[in-house]
Amino acid sequence: MKRCVIRLFLLTLCLCNLENISAQKSFWMLAGQSNAAGTGDRRTSLKYADPACQEYSWHGDSLKVLQDPVGETDEYFGKANTGSIAPSFAYHLHKLTGDSIVMVVAGRGGSSCGVNGETIYGTWALEGKLSVYKPCIDKATRAQKKVKRSLDGIIWMQGERDSNSINDGKQTPEEYEKALKNLINRFRIDLKNANLPIYIVLTGQYVNFPKAGYMEVRRIQRKVAKEVPHVHLVAVDPWFFPEREMMTDDIHYSQEAYNYIGKIIAQQIVETK
Fold first, then answer.
1. What is the average pLDDT across 76-92?
2. Strands (E), 58-177
3. DSSP element (H, E) containing 16
4. What's the topology of domain 24-272?
5. pLDDT value of residue 18
């Protein structure tokens, strides 16, 4: 009897050690425009105070429990106003994998991908008047040092500004495609991962505004996901959010939509690994 108890104790100890060994960090960046920063409602955002899900703070060079509003407001990026996809994504990925999740957020409302689409809100192109690309890389690089791990992937939520610039004749679809491919390539070079996974959330629509530019951006996002290795189109289509009453205004998604997007991205990441 005594031997059985000892064996059971040793087996339990081994299983606990195996669980601790298998648990690891998973590190993700959320970047793009205002829907990346988040314009939802933290009151209906996923709420939990789990140290297994953390956010990197650029200003304090520290990690904190991830909860909305995520992000930080400075001259380059904005804080969630007031809910985002981040808590839902981190929570569901943690539950699916058992990994501890760390996120770094770099959302700039109104920012373009292509330089010809730039307005006063800046651009992700290097040659823009207000480029947010280098600050994003600085933030991600500092986060990687703090976490002691390279990024596992980037969630990209952007395209509305470029859709409008195509509608206005300030940018061609070909220029947007080139800008998006260049951005992906630069991310991979500067973050030192040639196969860095990129998860593109398909751009939705601007309700009651011209659709042509938005259809072009969506077409190109699909094309890039097919042509560029390790680029994935997230299995969510925000085009249908208006008819499902999942919008806060003509262009921004509701917290219900953010929670849904975060869950689907987490599921898709697990499926594509």
1. 96
2. 62-65, 100-107, 153-157
3. helix 2-22
4. Rossmann fold (3.40.50)
5. 30
Give me the phi and psi of 44, to 5 degrees please.
Answer: -115, 5
Nearest to residue 90, comparing CAs of 70, 115, 74? 70
Is the alpha carbon torsion for 41, 64, 261, 33 positive or negative? Answer: positive
Listed in sequence order, the residues at least 6 apart from 240 whose beta carbon sits closer than 8 Å to its beta carbon are none
Q: Which two tokens stand for residue 116?
A: 């010809």
Sheet with strand 153-157: strands edge to edge: 62-65, 53-57, 100-107, 25-32, 153-157, 198-200, 231-233
Find the helix or strand (DSSP H, E) in which 232 lies: strand 231-233
In this prediction the pTM is 0.91
* Model pLDDT for residues 22-58, shown as the tens digit of each residue: 469 999 999 999 999 999 999 999 887 788 999 999 9
Closest among 212, 22, 1 to 99, alpha carbons compared: 22
